[in-house]
Fold:
Amino acid sequence: MDSKGNFEIQTSSHDLPHSASRKSGISKLFSTLGKQRLNDASTFATDHFTHTDSSGEERAGKGVTGELGSRDDVNSLDRYYVPIDTYEGRHRYDPKATWTLEEEKALIRRLDVRVCAYCCLMFFCLQLDRGNISQALSDNMLKDLGLNTNDYNTGQTIFYVSFLAAELPSQLISKKLGPDNWIPIQMVSWSIVAACQARLTGKATFFLTRSLLGIIEGGFIPDIILYLSYFYKSKELPVRLSFFWGAYAMTFIISAFLAYGILHLGGRHGLHGWQWLFALEGSFTALLGIVSWFYLPPSPYQTASYFRGKNGWFTEREEVILANRIIRDDPSKGDMHNRQAATSIPFPGSLGLLMDTRQAVTPRLLWAALTDYDMWPIYLLGFTWTTPNQCVVAYLTLILRSLKFDPFETNLLTVPAWTLFILQLLFWTWLSERINNRYIIILACQLYMLPVLIGLETLGGGQTHAWARYALSVMMVGFPYVHAIIGTLYSIPARATRQERCTDLLQWP
Structure:
């Protein structure tokens, strides 16, 4: 048992079958698949299954073979799918395991409630603490600190440069410690900095907190996506990522109403409204970060703990389904382990330190991912696709204040923009899966923004045409957000080599 109260998995050697011979590349697998003319990945073949549970009794019935197709295909292709012996779900891997479609759907619904929904809540906290500066601006924060918009621009540049620089190191740490450990540490750390913004005194402290927030928050988003990939198949991720980014937009809506109430505390105990905003919202994230330390399981097969229950979230049968559906969808996930293991670090005397260790990304694997030129165009797309609307998003509250709306009206007027954002996010993500085409949707996003950007430029500044400028700003902020769609593109070229799949997740922009 580790410091989080998690029960370690006890697996004897006879529970782990001998590894089949493994091939160096997935291309050989695709060649074999072509020769065997397997069914499409979404086609299920009905078959008879037997599964021996922990009591030694065989369970029999009708089920589905999943993506592997017929029983002969399982026998001939098992060597391409079998995970390494240290993979955390290795004791649940069974190439002959079958299940019904109803069983799998019920299990996915439980994953959505227990895992995806909580990840969305954590992302809500991230955006709450990095985005509440927008509401603080509406309460004259710059004037109170003796800053101007140029200082604000510099502070935001410092934040994003720090955020970008910290992403890769943060994700390497996450892979070594495990996302279930590193994410709560990040949350508590940045919440302390976020709450300390209530005591900003001027330019120096503003720049310092912007940099610290960027460094600590950097890597959080790809850490979450890596964590979700332990539970979901690749074709299930786009919809879950749309929920994930929907939580991002919901933050702006909920925080607008929160700001409307919190900013009214201005003057209490000698604090401005924006100071109350930073202090209260930072404290909420700290509390959730502490809860997350105990709530997040290391993997689908390591859910038993005092906090989550001694029997865990899933039965043995459900863990078998989880392990085999994930490996059959993407065998590369079985090439690296996230096994929770307490390693004793001796100290002088009788004291020792128990450290939870996972398999880290090696320099060789990192270099292989960085030099995977098939991914470079997608990285470039990820870095540039939001360029047209970022100024409007960053300065929306300042734009509304320049149109002579008061602080409370300004925050409420942002709600329609983010409501439109959520609707567009869900619709375009659904459509991309419906038509099975992602690049055309990404192109449509850019075509949508072009006339809106031209309209904003044509109207110019000043207070003339205030409501027209507001309407165009709402359309620009509520544009077709395709981040969830772009995220799925990373897994397509990355599956060329099995172990590169893990390191490609580290390069989420």
Notes: The longest helix spans residues 101-131.
